[in-house]
Amino acid sequence: MSSDLLTSDLSPLSNDDLYAVVESFVRAQPSEGWQVEYTVQWEPSALKDVAALANTFGGVLIVGVKKEKTDPIATLVGVASDSEYKTGIASSIATNLVPIPPYSIFECVMPEVPSKRVCVVRVRESRVLHLITSKDSAYQRKPVFVRNEDVSEPASASQLRWLIERQQNAPTLGTRVSERGSNLRHVMLVGSGYQRPDDGDWNYSARQTSTTFLKLGMIAMDAPPIWLEESHERWLESTVSRVYPGFSGVLSSGAAVQAEVRGADFYERAVYHKNLNYESKWRVTRDGDIGHATQMTCGSVGPKGEWSVVDLATYIVLFMRLATAWWAFNSYFGNGHLFAQLNVPGLEVLRHPKDGYFIMGFDAAASPRPSIHKPSLEKHAIRCAVQPSSGTAIAECDVSCFGDESSRVTVVSSILNQLLRSLGHGADLKALRDHVDRLLQKD
What we know:
It is built from 11 helices and 24 strands. It is an alpha+beta fold. The chain folds into 2 domains: 15-155, Methyltransferase, Cobalt-precorrin-4 Transmethylase, Domain 2 (2-Layer Sandwich); 172-441, no CATH class. Strand 3 (65-66) and strand 4 form a beta hairpin.
């Protein structure tokens, strides 16, 4: 896996390897944004960028990159220096920012121009309010900065209030995140056997609560409250159709029906596949959280019924895409907490009857085109337990909106591995990562 400039430990990298990571990043990020700022050299004006990144969603300031407003792309030019450049940057931050934000600096020499250097100032999101204490009169009048798209600007009154409230609530953040995750799992029940599936209010008809399901939730740790309205509802409808085309296919064919439920602080869409007795639902909340719950039974191919590991991996990948898109829609690029709950009591793992490899049951990612290739997982990837545990598994992982494809592979593989091991199954993490990587690369 390649290193990720925003999340990986860059300390072990050689000079040339670090430069290659920076060069690749700048090529992939030709413009500045919420978490990216470029500057040709370190100047006192860069203090506002470091403070703004820390006060908002974190990010990187790369010194040695030319990107003017009129430039179509960023250019890695380096900064001339015969000695270590990062010492001066660190001194400036320590002297002029209170409290000092969580940051690290990585420096490398340009391989083809040894007289020039590049510095990466990586700033972490902080729940403490960071002020600029420079004697510059502009900073004395407005010492608090936040990030807005690709600009670091003084905090408005409402932004300042949010920053202060975030700092006050920091000691109880872990408890509140846990409570929100628990609540999301509790309210997203998967139904089965609806008595009136063809009626307009089918979701209110008599049904059973399924004991087999997968629940996924992404909790936005520091998102400001969202005043839910119609644009959020239309976004969820259109994005679910795009990310989960398999459900769009069964809806258009008439094999499934859909419904919506709303409240003051949430909006939920549900799809019920009548032929398969298979329900899935998606929910967004005013806290910026998003959840997905779905049936996991693949029918009764075997005597006890079966569930698919390939389905599980696919659902986690698709949900990560959905959650990332939800955050971007609300201009939130901070940290989150991903949780998963899998209930498959009494079900066996679905495998190919002849070759033994793990296969897909319900393809939520399938395009309506019949030529779509259904993914499978090599049989050596999982060592199935003879007698699995109770059939209930929980997994969780901290997530940053930072990162590239490799960090998403790590997150999804970690959740998948935790769930499998909680059920008593052994897993080859490399094989899981390879499978997740292939899933992420699919259109």
